[in-house]
Amino acid sequence: xxxxxxxxxxxxxxxxxxxxxxxxxxxxxxxxxxxxxxxxxxxxxxxxxxxxxxxxxxxxxxxxxxxxxxxxxxxxxxxxxxxxxxxxxxxxxxxxxxxxxxxxxxxxxxxxxxxxxxxxxxxxxxxxxxxxxxxxxxxxxxxxxxxxxxxxxxxxxxxxxxxxxxxxxxxxxxxxxxxxxxxxxxxxxxxxxxxxxxxxxxxxxxxxxxxxxxxxxxxxxxxxxxxxxxxxxxxxxxxxxxxxxxxxxxxx
Length: 252
Known about the structure:
Strand content: 5-15%
Radius of gyration: 17 Å
Largest sheet: 7 strands, parallel
Helix content: 40-55%
Shape: globular
Mean pLDDT: 94
Low-confidence stretches: none
Distance between the termini: 36 Å
Number of strands: 7
Number of helices: 10
Structural class: alpha/beta
């Protein structure tokens, strides 16, 4: 087992890709802290994998500090932080308001930053570790939104592009403490959020015309990369954003 003995915090782990990450980490021997704002779903995942559940709103600074401290006090160390939590399910891509843009940033970008800041002292005390941020192929693919009286905000894509920049800058700063910071950028992945939020004909077009591998991604397709980044096998890999998208970004 590649993560035997490691302690990992996985945010947004109550469903979708985050749940797949948490389950795979547990299978690989990690002690997993399942973090989610949904206590029912997050608690169920934690019970099923033998992990610990913490209800956390990642956009709330006090919550992030609480879960970091509680994890360290419980296990004596933190080895991995996987920042998966984000607003994607039910997102309104046509709400161009400033208030909605701030809401998306509060979770997708600032939530990741707050979790990193909260966990950093404990990663340092633990002698180093791995931070894995969740980016997206949306950071590179230009969305086509209608332009009326309001300028499109491109909120989801922009937050993921910002995650890429954060990953690079953070990696350059914390490497001196043995902390690695990387990101995974999934392509369209068949979660419930994707199925409900992206029209089926558009998904089919992406898969057949914009991906080198003509197959829809499943959440489990991403977990191997996450395990590798969390493991000692990637001990000299940092500052990288790794697309796991069937070649979509490669093809442009």
